[in-house]
Amino acid sequence: MKLNKSFIWSLLLLTVIAALYRVIPNRPWGFAPQLAMALFAGAVIRDKKWAVALPVLSMFVSDLLYQVLYAYHLTPISGFYKGQWINYILFASVVVVGFFVKKINVQNIFIASFIAPTYFFIISNFLTWMGVGEFVEYPKTWGGLMSCYTLALPFYKMSIIATLVFSAVLFGSYYLIRKNSAKTVAA
């Protein structure tokens, strides 16, 4: 695979955003860059294997960091837990939403930034209700499912806000980098 500027900048942006995210103390639950990173990778990285691998790798490195911090009692959040593989699959599948962003513009990114957290919210909470992972047990009834979704609404709200914010940062940075690169080449 040829390493082009687009790939290198995408990797750099994904890494920087993940690093910045992890050093923010006391961040609100659900406010994370992973969904925006998956959208960005799907929309920008041409090689689909790398587009899927980079957000998953970023998530793994973040989870590894959390596990180290947890082991040293610096955070109450463990990095690895039962059923975590489901989240990796879901984050990887969010990249597909980015594949459908054929033209990178404000409108398309805005729409994708609502679709990604909504998709993730619906599927992840359904799986939680089904008992996948080590989460709260819900009755396997319509009421139990609705309770699962209702209790997750604050996370959903924050994931929409985070996806909008981090998408603006990622795609905005990418736009500025490409614009400056074009000026440099033309000069």
Describe this structure in words.
The protein has a single domain, classed as Arp2/3 complex 21 kDa subunit ARPC3 (Orthogonal Bundle), CATH 1.10.1760. 74% of the residues lie in helices and 0% in strands. It has 7 helices and no strands. Helix 1 packs antiparallel against helix 7. The mean pLDDT is 84.
List keywords for this structure.
about 190 residues; mainly alpha; Arp2/3 complex 21 kDa subunit ARPC3; about 75% helix; globular
How do you describe this structure in short?
By secondary structure, the protein is mostly helical. Helices cover 74% and strands 0% of the residues.
Distance between the termini: 29 Å
The CATH C-level name is: Mainly Alpha
How large is the radius of gyration? 17 Å
* Count of domains: 1
Topology order in helix (H) and strand (E) letters: HHHHHHH
Sequence-ordered SSE layout with sheet pairings:
Blueprint: H1 5-23, H2 34-44, H3 48-71, H4 84-99, H5 106-130, H6 142-151, H7 153-186
